[in-house]
Amino acid sequence: MTTAEQSATQATGPQTTQKSRWLAVGAVALGTFLLVTAEQLPIGLLTPVGRALSVSEGTAGLMVTVPSIVAGFAAPVVPVIVGALDRRLLMLGLMALMTAANVVSAVAPDFAVLVASRVLVGIAIGGFWAIAGGLAVRLVPGEDVPRATAIIFGGVGAANVFGVPLGTLVGDLTGWRIAFASLSALALVALLALLAVLPSLTAEQAVRPRLLLAQLRNPGVRVGIVATALIVFGHFSAYTFVSPALQKLSGIDERHVGPLLFGFGMAGLIGNFAAGSALSRRVHRSVLIIAVALAIAMPLFLLLGRTTIGGAILLIVWGLAYGGVSVGLQTWMIKAAPNAVEAASSLWVAVFNLAIGLGALAGGVVVDTLGLRGVLLLGGACALLAALSLFGARGDESVR
Fold it and tell me: Which residues form the Major facilitator superfamily (MFS) profile domain (predicted)?
């Protein structure tokens, strides 16, 4: 962390105590937890929503696809539109938008209104994540940035492990409208928490299109974006079909897939914080190890995942490795662009979200043509290409 970002951090103190800064980190993590839960919650509600609003499950899937794509475009656009607006006010506004959007989802009279509310969710996700991803440098001292970033992105893993399953359970027990209403209530709690503990975060420089384009001339940023696109695209092309892979390749009974996916999520949480610890020492080596582990774990399913034990072990290894992706690559971007963290993070979030949707889409095409073997090989090949691009940046001092 240098120059502009350092001065921004210093500008929040000395009246801001160390404890209050970590409370702010926790409030931002709560925000990321709820945003990712909101993005993925409809996965577990497709059938009841489709039945209630008279649409097919395939059409209901737009509730997941639409916010991901919107978030990809919103990530760079929102910071440009708001200019130099205090980032505290921006994050409060985006969480308020999330609260209102889920109220609309809960009372939507038809599917068109529901999809419109999901567009608002996508805007909130993209804008909030673009700011939150690089916020650690504004809240804690330089040596604590990897740990704070890991906590913020811990909200992503927690959403997969706890948020989405619990939201689905609420929907099963009380109805899908109550699930969305409950999410809105929790978003209001997050809004109040941010209001209480988040300090003023005056923008040192407005994010302009020229500044965004300038990041693409930064070799470290380019490598980070390429690696992100490849890893996330490859992961979601394969992980979207992990349930049939476990059943058909590893011979695991359908009843045991849910608990194993919970184990994947728990492994991801562990991987997130383990990566945060490792990143505080060596960024380049840590991110490279993550990419290599993914490049090995996915295709290895075809050799060692043919048994129940082998499939379960490889799934956990996969989860551990992928758990470090968000915090690892976000830290890479912070290191690569210390004077333009917000601009670089906006590009990174855009690529990340677009890669999610495109990866799942490509995976579907590959499964239909080449089968499950094809998506596992595709996922491994993408991770391998990412590892090669990261290895090529070993001489870049900014990301060592």
Answer: 24-398
